[in-house]
């Protein structure tokens, strides 16, 4: 019974995150890596919770000046940048 509740809770949380992020991505809106919430960053390709947290930590210390600056974040390289370069933007 406890396992069923845990699975249901995880499913509900996942659906809530998807319901919040999907309209933003579907509308063609780009993700501003200087202001995006963790969940929005996680909607990008190859960006999980850990990399989203690293992006937030990096931008707190140094604002991103260009989309390419995301590669200065540990764990994010050329492959991740190339997969997301049309999805990200840098604004104040």
Distance between the termini: 48 Å
User: Can you give the helix content as a percent range?
Assistant: 40-55%
- For the record, the CATH architecture stands as Orthogonal Bundle
Biggest β-sheet strands, sense, barrel:
2 strands, parallel
Strand content: under 5%
Indicate the structural class. Answer: mainly alpha
The counted number of beta strands is 2
Low-confidence stretches: none
Q: Could you say which overall geometry the principal axes of the C-alpha atoms support?
A: elongated
Helical run tally:
4
CATH homologous superfamily designation: Photosystem II 12 kDa extrinsic protein
Number of domains: 1
Give the strand order, joined by hyphens, for the main sheet.
1-2
H and E string = HEHHHE
CATH fold annotation: DNA polymerase, domain 1
Radius of gyration, CA atoms, in whole angstroms:
15 Å
- Please give the CATH class: Mainly Alpha
Task: Give the mean pLDDT.
Answer: 88
Description:
- The protein has 92 residues and is mainly α.
- Helices cover 53% and strands 4% of the residues.
- It is built from 4 helices and 2 strands.
- It has a two-stranded parallel sheet.
- The radius of gyration is 15 Å and the shape is elongated.
- The N and C termini lie far apart (48 Å).
- The relative contact order is 0.16.
């Amino acid at each position: 019974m406890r396992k069923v509740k845990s699975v249901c809770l995880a499913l509900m949380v996942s659906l809530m995150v998807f319901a919040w992020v999907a309209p933003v991505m579907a509308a063609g809106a780009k993700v501003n890596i200087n202001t995006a919430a963790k969940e929005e960053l996680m909607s990008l390709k190859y960006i999980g919770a850990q990399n989203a947290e690293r992006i937030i930590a990096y931008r707190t210390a140094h604002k991103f000046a260009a989309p390419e600056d995301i590669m200065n974040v540990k764990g994010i390289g050329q492959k991740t940048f190339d997969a997301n370069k049309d999805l990200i933007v840098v604004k104040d």
